[in-house]
Amino acid sequence: MTRVVVDADRCTGHGRCYSLAPDVFDADEVGHCVVLVEDVPGELESQAKTGEQNCPEEAITVSR
After folding, report:
1. Does the predicted TM-score (pTM) go above 0.85?
2. Can you give the CATH number for the domain in which 8 is found?
3. Would the pLDDT of 22 be above 90?
4. Count: domains in the chain
5. Which of 5, 18, 50, 60 has the fewest CB atoms found within 10 Å of its own CB?
6. Domain, as residue range, for 15
């Protein structure tokens, strides 16, 4: 299973993650990333990786 973790201290709210991967990420009340699905099923794995790769602060970690 693939897991997604966001380092809240590094996230500054650019919004790329939830714009590019809306089934995995969302925004909190100030625009910072919130993980919707921590244990990512196979069909959402590519979205999770897209969010990770496009985070300018490298606040997102996707691991197996």
Report:
1. yes
2. 3.30.70.20
3. yes
4. 1
5. 5
6. 2-63
